[in-house]
Specification:
single chain, mainly alpha, 23 helices, about 50% helix, globular, cytoplasmic vesicle, acetylation, Rab-GAP_TBC_sf, GTPase activator activity, phosphoprotein
Length: about 500
Amino acid sequence: MNEEALLARASEERERIFQRYERGRENLVGQIDPWEDPEFEDYHKTDRYGFIHDERLLHKTAPQKVNVEVEREKKWVKMLGSWDTPATKEKLHRRIYKGIPNSLRIKIWCKLLNVNSMKSTNVGKYQEMLRLAKQWSTDVRQIDSDVNRQFREHQFYRERYSEKQCSLFNVLCAYSMYNSEVGYCQGMSGLAGVLLMYMDEEDAFWALAILLSDKKYAMHGLYVEGFPKLTRFLEHHDKILTKFMPKLKQHFDKFGLDAILYSLKWFFVCFVERVPFSLCLRVWDIYLLDGERVITAMAYTILKLHKKAIMKLNDMDLIVNYIQLHKDFGYEDDIVIHHLERSMDELKRAKIDYPGPPPPSELPQRQLGTFVEPDKKAKIGQRAENFSETEKQARATVILRREKAALELQELRVSQSDTVSDHSGVASGVRCEDSVSVLGSRRSLADTSVTSTADLSVFSSGRSHAPDNSLDTHSNISDDGTGSDGWGQRDRSKAIRWQSWRSQTKTYT
């Protein structure tokens, strides 16, 4: 198939996907595959945040807690009426740490992010980006796939082409044009999905734009080529563990457990799907107020609260699985937030609370909202044949962490056995089942990577660079979600264009 034919096919596919979202669910009767809609019974199984559970909910909100929230709502309504006054600014920190009433999050989050100001100075920009996306976006197929994988257990997103699925698709497509350096990266669907639970479509778009570009949050560095902010945050997290929890750090090193295996969603999407959703919202409240200091402090708090249990586990996979606390954190939300606040004070006193300002590589270099026409390879969907320099550096960083973990474990074993060992080629000398490599245990990495998380398995040496002459990102995946290379269902790397970091994850929930 020649180049012109491939371009025409890509254009037709993009138009076909957009048309389905524009028509909406009610106009697609009989055209939605049964597997696209998960089956749930709504009665008695939906919590107050809209998530549908497989079993009857065990706990109801106590009457006294309802009364407390009602009283807080009254105070917050009064504060919203005098938002810019000194009195409100004085009370804001204390009241946010106590918890924002769920019914008022839509207004307060918009205030904290200054969404209305951003929107008023960019009138018509969102609609312009959405129009451009319909004509030019090269990320439509991947966004379409991720939209139907994000929050499938939530009543807003469970039905294919529902109103919120359409909004999520539009926001992500529009942003892929607004920020041409990032385009779209898996993980962003989790951010936008949460924002859309509390905002309308355009507000969620500008909130996402602020989270990525504002220096207070600077999430651009997490999604841009090379993941520079992830590397920096992992190093900072290691410093915190070394200083405040050396025994736990030594325990992790003993079993070759690098932070990259358990902290991806902590840093990439601010704990979405890594702690119970009610607690996730409380962390988001504080994050929107205090910025990225909250992320490193919450990571420290999780390990501090669960240190005793973790120290009893003597296997890397067991530790990684234990830290997945999204269903049962083990502590009441108020207790966790209390410890989070103490952790932030503790880290601040030690002058290690802040990873430092983002370097230029973590901030947008191109003017946001300026259209950049994709090249022909991007339009067709061809994979990049070679790594860029940034990608080589990022890959080298992960390999270095892997080899460091291997070396530390090997040295520990030598000291324990009091035998002389050949230290040349340490990484290759350790057995695979010992799980010493940062990416050595594919099963462990898969367990850390849930729907829409950036898939760092692309760092593995087996990733293919062969050009693909098609937008069909599913061509190498069999119907059951497994491929010929032995990877499992939960985390399938499809290795689409490394240049724009569209790491593909074949994940079903």
